[in-house]
Design a protein that fits this description.
3 helices, mainly alpha, about 80 residues
Length: about 80
């Protein structure tokens, strides 16, 4: 049976301070993102097409294995498409 972790230094849960710090570690622009050149190229084309589309309601679905930087890429898209400020 799993017991809750009492030591806050190794707790798997995040508090507000952790969340704010994590966001500062993520790149804010596609040009700041390191690696995955093919993915970056495809995303750049996708974002340019979305910016030029008459209908601004574009859906993007990102899937893959853990640690494939899906959250980071979604954050970059949101920042560059001015969904997040």
């Amino acid at each position: 049976m799993d017991k809750p972790i009492k030591n806050s230094l190794i707790s798997p849960s995040c508090d507000e301070e952790d969340n704010e710090f994590e966001v500062t570690l993520r790149p804010a622009k596609l040009t700041d993102y390191i690696g995955q050149e093919k993915v970056k190229s495809n995303l750049a084309i996708f974002m340019e097409a979305a910016r030029n589309a008459a209908r601004r309601s574009i859906t993007f679905f990102c899937m893959g294995r853990p640690v494939w930087e899906k959250t980071t890429l979604a954050y970059i898209i949101a920042k560059e498409m001015v969904v997040l400020k």
